[in-house]
Amino acid sequence: MKRKYRFLLPMLILTMVFSSINVFALNYSGNFGNEATFETMAEVRENAPGALQPFYSRYNYVPHPVMENYPLDKTFVYRSPDMYGITAATRINTNIAVFTDQSFESKDDAFAYLEGLGLIEKINEIRGSIILVTPSNPETGFTAADQKYYYALQTAIFAVNASGTNEAGETVTYVDGAYYGGYSYYYVIGIDGGATFLNNYVVGNIDYASRIAGLLLIGGHMDRIRKVSAFLPVYIVNGDEDVIAKYEEINGTDSIIKEGAKVTYYNQVYPLRKVVTLFPETLDTAAVIDDAYYNLFLTAQRGQEMTGGIYSASTPYQGYGADCAPYSLSPRNPVLNGKTREGICFFTCVEDIFDEVKTEEGEYLQTWYEYIPEEALDGSVKDGSIPLILACHGGGDDPRQFVEGQGFLDLAGRERIAIVSPEKAKLHTTAADGSDYLSYALPALVRHVLEKYPALDPSRVYVTGYSMGALATARAMLGAPELFAAAYPQCGGFSLLEGDAERFEGIELPFVVSTAEYNFGYNQNVGFCYNLASIVSELNHMGPFDEPDFEKYPIGGFDADLATVRKQNDDYTVYTFLKANDKGIPMVGVMYIDSIVHCLYPQYSNILWDFFKHYSRNQDTLEIEYNPYA
């Protein structure tokens, strides 16, 4: 089959990123399958490279050099069983750092301490690590000297897949981020002297504070001249009134909820920006941690989007890995025991039902993940009432990490949406019969899920994906445009293949392509997205766009029928430009978001849904129906 390739430069970049990772579709596992471990940091540095090398054979793993002078015998690391790993799923391990001025004579004592706080059970439930930090000098407790060690630890655990060179000039990969680190789900507990240390030496630095998704302070103090540098959810137990006031000010709290001895001050517009205070008659530390963990920590995540190095100038590892402070703050809706607290049920599906067609290498779609509202399972809603989103991960990502990292779980809980996310790492290749495999497999998956769950609405099926997932989005919509009510490829491209245009005969498909300011370079991407939108405009029988005029129409390049500009989550500005068809329905457009690098952003799901929710496809006529007031 002859193929027509257009707009190759961005696709080559995406292919280079994609081909640099270990990829496979059959017998997929995004977890390490490890047993639980409890080690001193010295043991971590010794054991971690060998533990991960079998999973990432192409990497030459070494401990992060930033930890060379760290007081290795003063910090302990617990890793839960079966941590997320193998691909970029390392990013969704939950990390809890505990700072206490207690000293422990043995690892057994340190483990018993964490177990007594209830943290071992919690991290086993959700997967991740606990990092127990004690003062570098037990005689003096935490001092300013420990701040440099905080920086070292933060650098190591956040530097997922970061690399450097050794003394021989060979490329090495730092193991810490994959072994016990990660980002997005980083929560910190300070107890007594540990709380004072965090108040005085951590929260005043925006590079430190804005990475913390939830902070628990039990006791402790803050020097008068110290300030809080970034808004963050905080739970303060027996805290000083002036300390509470500083956290309230930075979070912009303007409302109060009182529950006995517990008072929550929160920001009405951005309710994650909250300060919870508690003055108990008798302190039960484990009970406080339990409350903070479930009702503060697990409600929030941080997103890594800002271009690197802005707030970490002159530090040794400025501008690499996840050095992107400030991190944005967004809701988290985790899966615990197979279900989110809002009743989105999670299923891992491994089946051989799509093996009728295979890629040239014999691969086929075998693993996918389903997120289904509980009412779709128990028969409490009528058939055809719940929308479905096909969510396609990018190169190097895990489907679960894509769903969580883009905020789809929170969206699903609020809007009662079903999500299916396939593992498709090695499926971006030609099928054995010469056709495009994804154009077969992804529509087949959607039809299977619709048949499996009658409560899902076939008139409201949407498709999106990021980076290489944008290519998958295109292949799905081009393979069966009549199946979808709208498509939204993000920060990636596609080429038309033979037969794609013919499938649009008598069919229209609402479509937006997105890019970001630092997504491979602004000048390249705005023109690239303009061209893709023009192609889909032609497929939609609206004719191609005119030549772009970015001087007259900045950012979009064309005279849009509907243009919106808004600040998303008090983070970044989102520009959307849409062209309407002859019925006045906005059908094709471009979205641009400022300041963001090529990354997942937890607010993307909300941006997409603000477009998707207006569209449905009549199942009798296959025409698009548009509701501007949805």
**Head-to-tail CA distance between termini:** 42 Å
Overall geometric form:
globular
CATH architecture of the largest domain: 3-Layer(aba) Sandwich
Count of spatially separate domains: 2
Nearest-integer average pLDDT? 92
Percent in strands: 15-25%
Q: How many helical elements? A: 17
Show unreliable segments.
Answer: 1-23
Number of strands: 27
Q: Tell me the CATH superfamily of the largest domain.
A: Alpha/Beta hydrolase fold, catalytic domain
- Rg measurement, Å: 25 Å
What's the CATH topology label of the largest domain?
Answer: Rossmann fold
Explain how this protein is built.
The chain is α/β, with parallel strands linked by helices and 630 residues long. It has two domains: 294 residues, Rossmann fold, CATH 3.40.50.1820; 279 residues, Rossmann fold. Helix content is 27%, strand content 24%. It has a ten-stranded mixed sheet with strand order 1-3-5-4-8-9-10-13-12-11, with helices on both faces. Strands 16-17-19-18-20-21-22-25-24-23 form a ten-stranded mixed sheet, with helices on both faces. Helix 14 crosses helix 15. The longest helix has 18 residues. It starts with 7 loop residues before the first helix and ends with a strand. The N terminus is likely disordered.
